[in-house]
Amino acid sequence: MSVKILSVTLLLLSMCVCFSSSAGIRGPTKKRPCCVDVTNLDMSPEVVGETYREQASSYPCVNAIIFNTEYGQLCANPDAQWVQNLTSTMKKVQ
Ligand SMILES: *[C@@H]1O[C@H](CO)[C@@H](O)[C@H](O)[C@H]1NC(C)=O
């Protein structure tokens, strides 16, 4: 039971379905969804592109680094080492 909840949570985290990518397909200008949770898991193999965004915390949104992946955007913990390694070689955009 709790294992199931955990795996669902991880899936949601890794996909960050709350996002519609800025290169996105559709969706008029409704207010931009935000990261309400971040992952510490090293997802660097999934990250594409050379830019990332930083999100300030503003409840319920949390402080996050937002990467692009093949399947959408990924909310990552700014304090995670892999995130810092990646962002040091990437360009920040807003
Ligand atoms: C981050 O970079 C350092 C220095 O290159 C490396 O030793 C370390 O393994 C990297 N950590 C992660 C989690 O990628």
TrEMBL record:
Upper lineage: Eukaryota, Metazoa, Chordata, Craniata, Vertebrata
Name the record gives this protein: Chemokine interleukin-8-like domain-containing protein
Alphabetic keyword roster: Cytokine, Signal
First and last residue of the signal peptide: 1-22
InterPro entries: Chemokine_IL8-like_dom, Interleukin_8-like_sf
Signal in keyword set: yes
GO CC annotation terms, alphabetical: extracellular space
GO molecular-function terms, A-Z: chemokine activity
Keyword flag Signal: yes
Source organism of the structure: Astatotilapia calliptera (Eastern happy)
BP GO annotations: immune response
Residues in Chemokine interleukin-8-like domain copies: 31-90
